[in-house]
Amino acid sequence: MLFSAFILGLISSLHCVGMCGPIAMMLPVDHQNEAKKVTQIITYHLGRLTAYSSIGLIFGLLGRGFFLAGMQQKMSIFIGIAMILIVLIPERVFAKYNFSKPVYKIISNIKSSLGSQFKKKSYKSLFTIGLLNGFLPCGMVYVALFGAIAMQSAGFGVLYMLLYGLGTIPLMTVVIYINSLLKLPFRNKIQKAIPYVAIIIGILFILRGLGLGIPYLSPSNMSLFVQGTPNCH
Predict the structure, then answer these.
(1) Cβ atoms 227, 216 nearer than 8 A
(2) pTM
(3) Cα separation of 116 and 48, whole Å?
(4) For burial by CB atoms within 10 Å, which of 88, 136, 154, 228 has the most?
């Protein structure tokens, strides 16, 4: 299922164009020196990848707990359903319950720190911008984190989120060079494709958890995502 992380990242980057595109456009990069600009953009992306990998480590450890408890198949089904619900339920429904209220102060501090970094032009500030950018709330990142939980180990949780982050890089890099990608008509078109892909990935997780005996797609054995310890009987 690791392949789904990169695909989800590619599709999520369409969402990132609208949400994080302005951040990418404001990066304090050197527009006069193309070689330096490339290294600065890479530094920004390394910051984002570090953030995603860190979160993947935490959720991978959580998934490991479910795996050791023998709940991996049920968890896979739950995760698939959750992925689908996230994209189907209107954002205004979640907004009514204000799930982010307990961490509002943390998010506010992240945004404040992010704003201060744009005044600097060092590689450290570019890395920090990417790092803070990766920690900002994002619905598609939440979907990816469900996948990280299903990986059943900390290492694979990190790898899942790393692949997700790598999938977002191509389009996020293009945005820095081509501002026209942020125009409203384009954003409206790409937003329509995102739910379909997320639903397909959610269905794959559900099938994986059902253990229907379909090779690779829905294997009947309990080791769904990570190769277990060889049976040496």
Answers:
(1) no
(2) 0.70
(3) 17
(4) 154
The conformational region for residue 112 under phi > 0 = left, psi -120 to 50 = alpha, else beta, is alpha
In terms of Cα–Cα distance, which of 232, 44, 42 is closest to 131?
44
The tens digit of pLDDT for each residue in 189-231 reads 666 767 777 787 788 778 877 777 666 566 665 444 444 444 4
Residue type at 92 in one-letter notation: R
Range list of β-strands (E), 147-230:
none
Give yes or no for a contact between 213 and 220, defined as CB atoms under 8 angstroms apart. Answer: yes
Counting every residue written for the chain, the total comes to 233
Euclidean distance between CA atoms 12 and 141, whole angstroms = 8
- Cβ-in-10-Å burial (0-12, 13-18, 19+) of 28 comes to middle
φ/ψ (deg, to 5) at 221: -75, 160
Closest CA to 150 of 199, 200, 206, 89: 206
Query: Do the beta carbons of residue 144 and residue 161 sit within 8 Å?
Result: yes
